[in-house]
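Same chain as my last thread, 451 residues:
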Amino acid sequence: MLHFAPYSTFSIIALVICFALVCVFEFVNGFHDTANAVATVIYTNSLKPRTAVIWSGFMNFVGVILGGISVAYGLVELLPADVLSPPNGDPAVPMLISLFGTALAWNLFTWWFGIPNSSSHCVIGALIGIAIGDALLHTRSLGNSVDWSQIWKILRALAISPLLGLIGAGGLYFVVRHLVKDPELYQPPQGDKPTHGWIRGLLILTCTGVSFSHGSNDGQKSIGLIMLTIIGILPATFALAPDSATQITHIAQNATIAAPLITQYDHDGLRDEAIASVTRLTQTSPDTVVASALRADIYEVVAGLKAVAANTGASAHDRATARNLSNQIRPVVEYAPWWVRLLSALCLGIGTMIGYRRIVHTLGEKIGNTHLTPAQGASAELVGAGLIATAGYTGLPVSTTHIITAGIAGTMLGSGSGINRGMLVRIALAWICTLPVTITLAAALFYILNS
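reply #2:
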């Protein structure tokens, strides 16, 4: 599949199918992740399901629009530069099929059994698998093809955030239990009877917070995936930011400064590719730009500069210079059109409207030994919204599912009711198995499609 002719009929059809896959994946993501935002407000009858999911979808949209794109490209850059932006766009087909096929299959598998699984883990595992498959394909060592520093940074955020959710929500519930004496806060829903007064308002507010923060974080992930897809379909059109013309004039200057840094500090055997790219960039002018080739060269140079910035043998001045140069070059290729943000929000919202019931039931009745109360739901969502929003604006992808699930478990412990060990074992097994399963599947699929 690496030998598809650029813009051939078969290649275009395959990439259009991939575009459909990314939309389906984000739709299924709504089954899992966005359902956490509406679980409490629906389970406690504070809002009717249709009203809740429409409101949640709207706040997802606002979160996507205001959330930036740092998380989007933090994930995208897990891919090696030659896969991330090949000059002719051909490897986009096996890369995208491996990515979405793997993540979609695992998401559907866990959703079918009502297990709150992380779509973030699915995507990250698939991206790592593609990087490993690329290393095997080109007979490189794993250290040469996989940006382990970026992977560990992301995995630390994914691992620590649920613990913070567990402790934070449990602690908040404990404080609320001792300060607020309204008995309705601590009673599970009674049939279809809705919550009243300020309690209902509180639950709607926390639902709003989780929905907005989810959009600001998970929405960014889908933005990155959609950008990968449309760049694969039309690399000449979407490879560079629409307003990049003025920035292109500075690329040659920045590349000239980057050249000695990349030349001096060997970075795991990838120096030759980066030096070849930086040489081409020094000769760049607005009149000679080929969008897809320029994008590929920029990502090779960014990979080289990241390696310099992480090199402990480099001076502090050189590392700082490498980071600054990387930040100046990236805006040319790291952007997202408004319609990509809109599409991301719509896919997440529609998925929530259709597939939320299984996860709502799990969160409401199967995490603890007792049913969820308004105080527990509000505590978990309030802490979760804060953690997710903070991560979104610092460029770290976290799992809405794991944070909210851990938060509910924390409130169950804080109330003394205990947790349902059987369900938590199932969730933990899904959490533990997701990365190795998706890494293996994506690596094998990418290698097979390219062989």
